[in-house]
Amino acid sequence: PYREARKMLNQALNLQQKQISDGDESQFTRYLLAAIYAIEGNKTEANAWLQKAIDTGWRDYYFSQRDPWLENLRNDEQYKLMMAQLKAKLDSMRKKVEEMDAKGK
Question: Could you tell me the pTM of the whole model?
Answer without folding.
Answer: 0.83
